[in-house]
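Forum > Structural Biology > Help requests

Title: Can anyone predict the 3D structure of DUF202 domain-containing protein?

Hi all, first post here. I have the sequence for DUF202 domain-containing protein but no way to get a structure on my laptop. I'd be grateful if someone could post the structure tokens.
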Amino acid sequence: MRIREDAAQCAFIGTQTENEYKVVDMSDSRFPRSVFAVGTDPDPRFTLANERTFLAWIRTSLALIAGGVALEAFDVPLPAGLRSAVSVFMLVVAIILPLVAWVHWKQSERAMREERPLPFSFAIPVLVVVIMVVAGALVVGEFLG
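Reply #1:
Sure, ran it for you. Structure tokens for DUF202 domain-containing protein below:
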């Protein structure tokens, strides 16, 4: 078995039989089928960039988890109710964010495969508001504490 070296054929694997290659379409086995079963494979650089964006959203979610846990774990000089509310809020957003990242990854990958414009991510302005609310609550809590 050998992997084709042509970048356009990166999704195909061939097996050699008597100087002929049997080409197997790997798009049927890739997950999720709703993405990979349509259109044509885009340039791998774009697919990998989309994956890096997905991973950046996952890192953001992990940072929100760390921040939410840190607020409760360390002796942060804030009113207890405010500290708990901000911590829970950060954890709830951190739970939702990976799902939002997954949906955006699927929409972007499918748009590239169908040669359509990339969709806008509504998560960006929402995350900006979340960060502003958390920062504002912490500043207000600092003055109240």
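The longest helix spans residues 80-113. Helices lie at 33-36, 44-73, 80-113, 123-144.
Shout if anything looks off.
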